[in-house]
Amino acid sequence: MKKRYIFFGLVVLALVGLAITPAPSFAKAKGPIKIGFFAPLTGHAAQTGRDMLSGLQLFLIHQNWQVAGRKIKLISEDTEAKPAVAMTKVRKLVEKDGVHVLIGGLMASTGYALMPYVDAKKIPAIYAIMASDDLTQRHRGKWMVRTGWASSQPSHPFGDYAYKTLGFRKIVTIGYDYAFGWEVIGGFQQTFEDAGGRIIQKLWTPVGTLDYGPYLGRINKDADAVFALFFGSGALNFVKQYKQYGLKDKIPLIGGGTTTDEHVLPSMGDEAIGVITALHYSEAIDNPVNKKFREAFKEYAGKMASYYGEGPYTGGKWIIEAAKKINGDVENKEAFLKALKTLKITDAPRGPIELDKYGNPIQNIYIRKVQRINGELHNTVIKTYPKVSQFWTYNPEEYLKQPLYSRNYPPLKK
Amino acid sequence: MKILGIIAAFVFLVILPPFISSYWLTILTQMLIFAVLAMSLDILMGYSGLASFGHCAYFGTAAYVVAILTTRYQVGFLGSAGSALLATAVLGLIFGLLVAHTAGVYFLMITLALGMVIWGLAFRWVSMTGGDNGIAGIPRPHMGIPLSFDNPVVFYYFTFVVFLLCLLLLYLFIQSPFGQSLLGIRESESRMRSLGYNTWLHKYLAYVVAGIFGGVAGILWSYYNGFVSPMDAELTSSFEAFLMVILGGAGTLLGPAVGAGIIVFLKNFVSAYTQRWLLIIGAVYILTIMYAPGGLGGLVKQFLKGGEK
User: Fold this and answer.
1) Tens place of pLDDT for every residue, chain B, 309 residues?
2) Which of A76, A234, B249, B275 allows an S-S link to A230, with CB 3.0 to 4.6 Å?
């Protein structure tokens, strides 16, 4: 009987002990600068999440884990690619670990979920990958700093390019049936049709589709080109099946940047050669910073650099440069945020970056063509559009009056 | 012995919260919310012998109703929560017609499919639900009292009161003659039928009640996170609730609540130290099933019996 009392007593003590962990103290000035990283490190998106973490770690290693005389501490958390889990983990990073700045996130939904929280807590959050247009358009947050891209940003110049340079007039689009797919394809449709072209058919497939046979059979054969938007194993399968169905030699394949992104490109074969896509990064960009980055990334992570690695690498650089500007005084949150929002970087692997007043990067967009060089597939840059904003050549206020790109917007013209 | 347990729980859940860090407080709040969900599922799994893989349909529906009403139509707390409960009840009444005549693996499959229907609706009905992006910016409720629910301590106690209320109601539900006949159906449906019980109606109502309490958890979740997404109604969420009940011990009511607490704790505590945290949780499940098939609730029952000798 006595033993049981002792047992219960111990349980209670243990619980109390766990519960009373010291609250974060921001007063400890000149301790390390704490960076909180969150991304899916388990589950279906784990590979991408790990590439993101590698990119960030790589930059901090190059930085020797210190800036402005202060050490840098990186705390990483797994979001399982679920926004609710991400919320819990971010709360932990902010309220328990007391991080000074957040960076990470893969899914757009996580980005939206997080915004009210970081605004309430006044913690700068760097969105290095999360691309949903409205994060810097119709639903902006004050404490969010996007150093990545907006989904439709590369599509705008690409639509123009497809009409004027590639000479396409009629295009069929096919892509994942959710926000990211709609925005990439919607942006392309808008500028392609503005230039004078026409989208003659739009096909949507559920996320995670592996067999594209039923969709490939429905593609309108009058098309001059097919624009595809996939990622991961979907991209692998689509490009392969596009060739197997005999379409590759008849209708050229173009697409959103993730369709031939370097996270799947090494697994592709000859079927990918000649596919033209647009993105704000390519591993093949020819500048000294990128050359150094891709070699270091290959050595550190053991694989080809992709925008998933470059994003947080540059995001990390963004944090460090901003911290330098304010002499490492990241406890002064308003000043830190201001430094983050007004920063300009000229030597990121992807090229020069600055933020527009809506908080989205103005940066180069690269039109890339898959080519085999020394036996390896690469996204060779065939055209660079410098300083592209998320609004392309449109007037921002006018642009924001039109609805967000969706399944039915812009509509298919009869 | 029981008294000691209650005192420990009281200290932990009532006296301690204002003194712990805000992070642990939000974790504690989350534990209570999932405790309500697990208890509601226990009505089906433990007391009616019906294993459901689609319970988060109710959780998700309620969360979405609250999210849509508060962010789009600025409906107050009572209006939103009431509508959410009504919506889950109606959903339960409709889905119940499809599932109440089945049992065992068939029940499991149909609830799974229906759960996916709700997920699909949340994912694809973009104009209403925001699709994959979810709905963000749900404000904490204003109750017309001087306390602000934005304060995590206040919201915790609010959740705690709702939890106690659900616990009490579910306890009364099980102790009622109706609840007792559910136990009879679990043990032998054919015998109950031959005794003249309308077993279909019993199962049907149990399904609806479980759904409504799942909805209560969904309402709390929506306010707690300020955000809903299709993930909340997904199969993996239903599955997690299922595992909470198994771990805690089906048919013990408080057991699943504890199971929920343990899983939320493990997920947030262990994952901070290792990326292999899923392995640890997996090991916990396997050990539970091998050495404590009655779950933690079953273990405690045995333990208490031992103590009374």
Assistant:
1) 678 878 888 888 888 888 888 888 988 999 999 999 999 999 999 898 888 999 999 999 999 999 999 999 989 899 999 999 999 999 999 999 999 888 889 999 999 999 999 999 998 888 888 888 889 888 888 877 777 888 889 999 999 999 999 999 999 999 999 999 999 999 888 899 899 899 899 999 999 999 999 999 999 999 999 899 998 888 888 988 998 998 988 888 888 999 999 889 888 888 777 777 778 888 888 888 888 888 888 887 777 776 554
2) A234
Q: 10 Å Cβ neighbour count for A109?
A: 30
* Token pair in block for residue A207: 């996320």
CATH class of A33-150+287-359: alpha beta
Strand partners, A5: none
- CATH class of the structural domain A155-279+364-401: alpha beta
For chain A, domain boundaries: 33-150+287-359, 155-279+364-401
- Write the pLDDT tens digit of every residue in A155-210: 999 999 999 999 999 999 999 988 899 999 999 999 999 999 999 999 999 887 88
For residue B9, give how far its alpha carbon lies from the nearest alpha carbon of chain A (Å).
Answer: 8
Closest Cα in chain B, distance from residue A108 (Å) = 6
Distance from CA of B125 to the nearest CA of A (A): 11
Q: Token digits for B104?
A: 């065992």
Q: Across the interface, do B21 and A21 touch by the CB < 8 Å criterion?
A: yes
Distances (CA, A) of A245 to A16, A250, A258: 64, 10, 22
Alpha-carbon distance of A60 to A33, in angstroms, equals 12
In a mutagenesis test of the A interface, which of B7, B16, B132, B279 is the best target, namely the one with the most A β-carbons within 10 Å?
A: B132
Closest residue of chain B to A38, computed from CA coordinates:
B272
d(CA A197, CA A159): 9
HEC per residue, A184-217: HHHHHHHHHHHHCCEEEEEEEECCCCCCCHHHHC
Size of interface A-B (CB pairs under 8 A): 114
Chain centroid to Cα A107, Å, comes to: 8
Beta bridge partners of A66: A71
Q: Do B4 and A8 touch (CB under 8 A)?
A: yes
Question: CA-based Rg of chain A, rounded to a whole angstrom?
Answer: 23
* Residue B203 · residue B50 · CB < 8 Å: yes
How many Å lie between the alpha carbon of A90 and the closest alpha carbon of chain B?
10
Determine whether the interchain pair B12/A19 forms a contact, defined as Cβ–Cβ distance below 8 Å.
Answer: yes
* Number of neighbouring beta carbons within 10 Å of residue B212: 21
Contact B227 A112 (CB under 8 A): yes
Please give the structure tokens belonging to residue A384: 């660079």
Task: Verify whether the Cβ–Cβ distance B133 to A11 is below 8 Å.
Answer: no
8 A C-beta contact, residue A304 and residue A298: yes
Residues of B with a Cβ under 8 Å from any A Cβ are 1, 4-5, 8, 11-12, 16, 19-24, 26-27, 30, 123-124, 126, 131-134, 136-137, 221, 225-227, 229, 231-232, 267-268, 271-272, 275, 277-278, 307
Q: What are the φ/ψ torsions at residue B202 (nearest 5 degrees)?
A: -60, -50
- List the single residue in A15, A95, A179 with the smallest CB-CB distance to B12: A15
pTM across the whole model:
0.83
Q: Which of A4, A19, A92 is closest, CB to CB, to B307?
A: A4
**CA distances from residue A155 to A3, A166, A206, A354, B201 in whole angstroms, order as listed:** 70, 14, 21, 19, 57
How close, in Å, is residue B46 to chain A by CA atoms? 27
**Using CA atoms, how far apart are residues B194 and B159, in angstroms rounded to an integer?**
43
